[in-house]
Each structure stands twice: as structure tokens, then as C-alpha cells.
Fold this sequence. Notes:
Keywords: DNA-binding, Phosphoprotein, Transcription, Transcription regulation, Two-component regulatory system
Distance between the termini: 43 Å
Domain Response regulatory: 5-119
Number of domains: 2
Domain OmpR/PhoB-type: 127-230
InterPro entries: CheY-like_superfamily, OmpR/PhoB-type_DNA-bd, Sig_transdc_resp-reg_C-effctor, Sig_transdc_resp-reg_receiver, WalR-like, WH-like_DNA-bd_sf
DNA-binding region: 127-230
Amino acid sequence: MTKKHIAIIDDEISIQKTLSVALEAQGYTTTIYNSSSEALGKIKVDPPDLIILDIMMPGVDGITFCSIFRKMEYNIPIIFISSIVDEITKIEALERGGDDYLAKPFSIKELLVRVAVCLRRVDLYQTTSKRFKSNLSGFFIDDGAYQIFFNGSLINMSVTEFRIFKTLFESPNIVFSRDELMAQAYPEDTYISDRNVDTHITRIRKKIINIYSDFKGIESVYGLGYRYKK
Length: 230
């Protein structure tokens, strides 16, 4: 079995070494980048299976890197690690395409669990999903590749966003609570708060509207959750 490859993007040498040693002890291979600028060019040539990304770095900061990287249509999971703990920064990091956020200092054990969970999400769709396609309302869902298209245009979503949209889309007019959506998006993760659903929904809407400006399909139902209006 090919070892999973983790890219570590952080300018702190001590963090680089700690993460690299811990990850390789778990059977992963790692590549260390000292800056986002360095990583942007090299990751195109050798894409990893997951990225661990700091925010505060010289040159291009981590959130800007994430935004640029997502526009390249990579669905590689990104876990932010940062000493910044304010809610605004966390929300922005997730809105720009992050899959998880861990505040420094953090437990290496918890990081390893989060890495494993993110990778399992991807593997679930790549190896165990049956291919499912639908073109209702102009949308086309490729379940095997976890990709969503509208009228032939790819809507670049993370695995988490894909799962949330697919859950709503396949059960039109049914209201899902935040807990129910999180259970679909993170079936193996006990660390995620249901508050993240609102952030993911915002990102999904923005991405669809960029291609389909009149999209109003996902509705908020006050006090209950969300539904896809057919």
C-alpha cells in the first residue's frame, strides 16, 4: 500500500520537525515547505494527500495560499494550525477552503486523529462509493469523484462541502438539522462543532452563485436547520 503523503507548510523549524517525526512514525511520508510561496510551485508537481498549513508566515499567508490553492481545483484536505485563536480568523480560514482548524499549542495525538479522519473522508469517496450521477435542475453529481457540476461547469468543493450539498440535494424539501448535516459530513469525527455547518453552507452558496448567479436552492429554516428547495 502506498504511504500517504503529507505536506507541512510552516516557517517554524521546531514545528516542522515535531510534525514530521510524529507523522512519519505513523507511516506517512512528509515534505516540509518553509513558506506558502515555496509550496505553491512545488505542490503542483507533487500533490500531497493532505496539507498541514500555518497562517502567519513571511510572504503569502496561509489563508491566502488556501484561497489560491482552491482555485486550482484541488480537493486535497487542508488542516490549518495557528496560534491565532479568534473566531473571525477561524471562520475566514474555513470559508477560504480549509477543512479543519487546530489552535497552537495543540496535542500531537489530536492532530494525528484529525489527519486520519480527513484522509478517511477522501478514501471513502475514492474507494468505496458507487458512482452516482444526477442532472436534476442542471446539477450533475459524480459521487465516485466527489465532484459537482452545474450545466457542465465544475463547482470546486471540498469533500465536506460535497457531502453537505449532496445530502440536501438528494432529499429536496426535507429539513436537516445542523447535527444531521454534520453527521453526514463528518461520520467519523467527534471533534467537530455543529456551528461549522453555517460556515460550510455559506461557502457552498458562494461557490454555486459564482457559476449560477440566480441560485437560491439552499434555504435556512429558522430554529431547525437547512433544506434544498426543489
